[in-house]
Amino acid sequence: MPSNTGGSRRAIEKSLGRLYENQSRLPRLPVPSLESTLAKYSRSLEPLLSAEDLAESKRAIEAFAKSSQAKELQKRLEARAADPDCANWLEEWWNDLSYMGYRDPVIPYVSYHYSFNDDPECQRPNQRAAKLILGAL
């Protein structure tokens, strides 16, 4: 839903028509725990880094997890999620940083599916993914 620029969420939802009329009834997006986020980040580095770089990154992640900065940032995310005027704590950042602030063409770089013709040999998403990866290699 577009960012809130004033007024009640219900009034904004109503003014946007049927598309958003049930937005306030949807469950709120939970904020993942700091531990969960850092564990996922650490796992995402594994295929990208050498053993030495990965060990160094894991030490930095552990140090960050213990820092007051990490606790403060997590607290701010949780406060944003608890704000009754904020339907989704991630939405504005996601839209602004992933779409509106991204200056490359969206179709080939964000929505790659639209750049490729359907392959009748690929009946399942994992087959398509495997074929795309094989083609990239």
List keywords for this structure.
mainly alpha; flat; 7 helices; 137 residues
Mean pLDDT: 84
Low-confidence residue ranges: none
Shape annotation: flat
**Class by helix and strand content?**
mainly alpha
Strand content: under 5%
The largest pleated sheet is described as: none
Structure commentary:
With 137 residues, the protein is an all-alpha fold. It has helices at 9-15, 34-45, 51-66, 68-82, 91-100, 106-109, 125-136. Helix 2 (34-45) packs antiparallel against helix 3. The radius of gyration is 20 Å and the shape is flat. The two termini are 38 Å apart. The relative contact order is 0.09. The mean pLDDT is 84.
Give a brief description.
55% of the residues lie in helices and 0% in strands.
Secondary-structure map:
Blueprint: H1 9-15, H2 34-45, H3 51-66, H4 68-82, H5 91-100, H6 106-109, H7 125-136
Helix pairs in contact: 2-3
